[in-house]
Prior knowledge:
Radius of gyration: 18 Å
Bound molecules: fe (ii) ion
Order of helices and strands: EHHHEHEHEEHEHEEEEEEE
CATH superfamily: Metallo-dependent phosphatases
Strand content: 15-25%
CATH architecture: 4-Layer Sandwich
Number of domains: 1
Amino acid sequence: MKLAHFSDIHITDFPLSGGFALKRLAAIASYSLMGRGAHFAGSDVRIARLLEDVDAQGVDHALCTGDLTGVSSEAEFARVAGLFGPRLQQPQRFTCLPGNHDRYVKSAAGRFEQHFGALCEGGAFPFVKRVAPKVTIVGIDVARPTSLIDSSGLCGPRQRDALLGVLTDASLKDQFVVLAMHYGLLRAEGQRDHRKHGLRDDLELTQLIDRPDVSLDLVVHGHMHRPYVVKTARRTTINAGSATDLHVKGAGYHVYDIDPDQHRVRITRRSWDVASGKFEGNPASPLNRELTTR
Ligand SMILES: [Fe+2]
């Protein structure tokens, strides 16, 4: 079974439009003064090429772990939804989760579901989605609007309880189970993320996934724009990084070749090639590897 995984594509609508909030003003400062805009300049083209490349790889399913927009404006959602086109109505082929930039301000509540609802089971988190006979994606929403200087996420006790119920259910025992979310549990070197950037309940969630009675093969996420693979005590976590950030060397996405019976996965990295203006195989990437997941 072949699964594509990409993240943090950040369509950028600048100057910012739609609604008026202090946080959006801060985003203007970040885009114009701190050069963030340059990271995602022209990301429309890269997103279009990315979706084409994913289609061309003949994957069975494709998963996006959030941050499709920059500031959750209606204009941004409309543009990125336009690039997805008919894929928005193909939940058997695509799954999308929200990131913190898709829940940027309180006034954007429900906007992600309005456009991408068909690809996240209508926003009923946690959801359980069988994407191949023996492969299941469990999706959680850990993004929320925050204050000006905070980009932390939260799973929350209610969702954690529901997640534990899902992952300990007998129906997932013989499945290859992928837990998908926007935030990572660990940074690249295996340390916790910072309080204002990571999950507030990272320790609780890590403890949950590391329980011996949980059926789980991979945790996949984004949020940090440089990709990496790191392990908790018992699970492998994979960050695809940003597929479109021009300041990330080898920015791109992953194709996972999954053998559900052997609980094995091969990671193949595909990266944006500036010269050709396309995504290409990246055989030199240190992300390429084969892993046993249980
Ligand atoms: Fe993020």
